[in-house]
Every structure is written in structure tokens, then in C-alpha cells.
Amino acid sequence: MEVLIVIIILAVVFAFFSPKMLQFINFGEKSQLKVDFALINSALAQNRAKNDLLQNSINLYQLDSARVNIKNEKLFSNILQKDIKSTTTIEKQSGSWAKVGNKDYIFFTKTQEYEFSLKDGFFECISQKEICENLD
């Protein structure tokens, strides 16, 4: 009888907290994406400013030398000091980046995929407008 009461109590507690836990995880993943996005854009802005000061007309054409759609590649290594390891578009590890082209990347959350591309020295969200608005 006591075991049954404990199971019922645990079921009620789990039913109450499981939706909250999913929201918490989604919030954490989106926060990580916002931080990474800001770091990448900040590094690109710093690179543009340095080139302007030195009067270089060199544009950054690649953010890294990572291979496309390979797990554990070092992404954004040409601009960031911190390593960001990649996932694949098959694995779609939540909270991780995948390289899908020479200048194209995807960030995966449990509920969405955010697509990005390097265009004219700027790292831009190229997903649907509603999805990209979440980054501001």
C-alpha cells in the first residue's frame, strides 16, 4: 500500500514538472544559441574593424576549415578562440551546430532548426523571419 502511494505521488510530481523541465531545456538551448550568435557577430565586427584600421580590403570567406556534416569538427575556428564542436544533420544533437556548406550552418534545438550563412562578412540567420526574430 505504501509503495502505491509513493508511486502515485511521484507520478503527480512528474506530471507537474515535466512540461516545466522541457521549457527550461528549450530556454537553455536558445540562450546558448544567442550567446554563440553574438560571439560570432562580435568576432566578425572586430575583424572588419581591424581590416578597416589597417586599410585591408580582405574579406573573411570562411569561418573555419571544418568538413561539412562531420561530427566533432571545430567550427568557427578562424574567428573564435573557443572550440565549438559540430554535430551532423542526421544526429541533430540538441544545442549543437552543424556545418552544411562552406558558409552555411544549422543550430539544433529540441523543437527547431536555425539556419545561418556568412554573407559579405556578416553571419546572418536565413531561416524564416519568425524563427530569426527570436534571436533579437
Topology:
Blueprint: H1 2-53, E1 74-75, E2 84-85, E3 96-99, E4 104-108, E5 113-119, E6 122-125, H2 129-132
Antiparallel strand pairs: 1-2, 3-4, 4-5, 5-6
Protein model, in words:
The strands form two sheets. Strands 3-4-5-6 form a four-stranded antiparallel sheet, with helices on one face. A two-stranded antiparallel sheet has the order 1-2. It has two helices and six strands; from the N terminus they run αββββββα. 41% of the residues lie in helices and 18% in strands. Strand 3 (96-99) and strand 4 form a beta hairpin. The relative contact order is 0.13. It has one domain. The chain is elongated. The longest helix has 52 residues, at 2-53. With 136 residues, it is α+β, with helices and mostly antiparallel strands.
Structural class: alpha+beta
Strand residue content? 15-25%
Count of separate structural domains: 1
Strand order of the largest sheet: 3-4-5-6
Using the CA coordinates, give the radius of gyration: 20 Å
Share in helix: 40-55%
List the total number of helices. 2
Low-confidence blocks of residues: none
* H-E string: HEEEEEEH
Largest sheet: 4 strands, antiparallel
Large-scale geometry: elongated
First-last Cα distance: 53 Å
**Total E-strand runs:** 6
The whole-number mean of residue pLDDT values reads 88
